[in-house]
Amino acid sequence: MKTKMRIPAAVNSALVLLLTTANAHAATTSKVFVSKLGILVFLGFCALVLVVQLIPAIMTLYGMVKGMGKEQEKSPSRVKSH
């Protein structure tokens, strides 16, 4: 009965040993990548997309506010007929 319990314990011990040493062969990170122009171009493109999407939204909002103002001015008046 003791041999059946030792095998899973040995497998668990081997797995723990292998999992703790898995990061030993990681790549070195001593190389530094500098791409200032690429980052600026990417952020500029993102800003351009944002502005292009905001222009129609602002125009629609302005039209909605303007339309609400016209509805209040053109409210039907009651005229008494003779």
Summary, kept brief:
With 82 residues, this protein is an all-alpha fold. The protein has helices at 2-20, 36-73.
Helices and strands, with pairings:
Elements: H1 2-20, H2 36-73
Description:
The protein is mostly helical. It has a domain at 35-70. The protein is 70% helix and 0% strand. The protein is elongated, with a radius of gyration of 35 Å. The N and C termini lie far apart (111 Å).
| Poorly predicted runs | none
Shape: elongated
Structural class: mainly alpha
Strand share of the residues?
under 5%
- H and E string: HH
Task: Kindly state the percentage of residues in helix.
Answer: 55-70%
The total of beta strands comes to: 0
> In whole angstroms, how far apart are the ends?
111 Å
Rg calculated over all Cα atoms: 35 Å
The biggest beta sheet reads:
none
- Supply the number of helical segments: 2
Q: What is the average per-residue confidence, as pLDDT, rounded to a whole number?
A: 78
Task: List descriptors.
mainly alpha
